[in-house]
Amino acid sequence: MALIPQTSSYVAGKWIDSGDAFAVENPADESRVTDVVSAPAAEFERAIVAARQSFDSGVWADLVPRERARILNVFLDAIVATRAELVDTIIAEAGLPRFFTEGVQVDGSITLGRETLDLYLALPEEDFNPVPVNQLVAGGAKLSVRRYEPVGVVSAITPYNAAIIMGIQKIIPALAAGNSVVLRPSPLTPISSLVFGAAAEAAGLPPGVLSVLIESGAAGAELMTTHPAVDLVSFTGSTAIGKAILAQAASTVKHVALELGGKSAQIYLPDAVDAAARGGAAVVAATAGQACVAATRMFVPADRKAEVVAAVSATYQHLKVGDPAVAGTMIGPVISAGQRERCERFVALAQEHGATVATGGRRPEGLERGYYFEPTVLDLPDNTNPAAQEEIFGPVLGIIGYTDVDEAVRMANDSIYGLSGQVYGADVAAATAVARRIRAGAVNVNANGGLNAYAPSGGYKQSGLGRERGPDGIRAFQEIKNLTVGSLG
Asked: Is 259 one of the annotated active-site residues of the chain?
C-alpha cells in the first residue's frame, strides 16, 4: 500500500515539522501505519492569526465567486491526482473497506465538492427583502436588500470515520463563500486530511487561507474553539464534545455549527417488512456501524418481529468481515480497542435489560489481531433498553416491535437525538406521511439520501445545530447583512 507522503501540518502556506512524533495505528491489524508530527499549540496560534490576516486583507474573500470556484476546482483536481495513495491511506488508518473508500469516501467526496461549487455559483449574493412598498416609502427608503457575506475565519474539526467527506463538506462551501479555514482532523485518522494541504499548495491558495494541522491531543482543537480571531466553529463528532465546544465558544459568542450523535430509527410499515433484511445490512456494511446517521433502531410490526429478526440475522451471517484492503470485504474493524470494548459493553447491558442476541455479539473467530466485532442483531424488548437509547457507534442493530404506526412514531421520537431516519412502505404516500412525523433533520422514504450536495442534513435536539450541504449548508458559512437604501432628495 502506498500512503500519501505528507506526515506534518500545513500552516500558512508552508509545511512544518516542529513538534513531537506520534504513531497512527492500523485498526485492522494493530500495526503502525506511520509516524506523524503533532503540531504544537504555537502553530495552531500561528495558523489562526494567518487565517485572520488573509481574510481581513481580502486576498481571497475579495475575489469574484467564479474565480474562487475555478481555483477550488483545481484544488479538487489535485486531490483526484492522488486518488490511489489517498484510498490506501484511508484504508490503512480508518479500516474502511476498499469498495466504500473508493466509491464514497474519495470519489463521492470529489463529486460532492464539485456539485457544491455549482450550487454556490447558482445562489444569489444579494436578494430583495419582501418589504411592502408603502413601508419603504414611509421609512424614506427605496430598496431593502439581503446580502450574503463570508463569516470570516472558520475552525473546522472533523471526525475519524469520514475525514475526507467531512473535510470536503466543510472546506469547499467555507472557501467558496470567501472564508479562511483552519482544519484539524481526528488524531485517530490524521494522515488522509493532509491531502488538503497538498491540494491547497498545488492550487495556489494564498497563505493562510487554508491551514491543516494534526495533533495527538486536544490542546490545538481547544484553541480553535476559544480564540477570539475565530468567527465560526464547524464540528462533526460526538454530542459530548459538541457540548464542550458550545461552552468554549460562548465567551466570544462565535457562530457554532454542530453535527453530533444519532440513534436513528428505521420504520417498516406492514406492507414493507420484506425490505428489512436489506435495510438492516446497510447499517453495518461499509462503516461497521460507525456512522452518526446509521439507523441502528429498527421498528417492525410486533406480529412479524420474529420473522424479521431471523431474516436480518441470516443476512448478517453472510456479510464478510475482515481485512478492509481485500476485495469482497463488507465490514472492517471499528477504530480502536476502546470502541470494540464499547460494543461489548452495550451488548452485555442490553442483555441485562432483557434483550436477546440473535447473532453476533462478540469478536469474530480467526481474527486475532485488529479491532473487529461481529455484526450483531439484538432482539430488544422495548425502546427503553440501553442499546436503543445510547449511540454505540459499532455494528450493532436493535430490533423492536410495534403494535401500530402511532406507537412506532412515538418510539422513534423517544430519543435525545434527531439526526436522521428512514421509513419504508409500499404505499409511498402513507410512508411519506409517517416520515413527516419523525423528529429528525433528514428522513428518507424508501431511499438512501447519500451524499447529496443539493439537500441539507443536520440534527434536531442533541444531534446538533445548523445544517450542512444544500443551500443552507453554504449559507451557514455566511453572514446576512440587511441593506436599506434611500436617497438624499
From this structure: yes
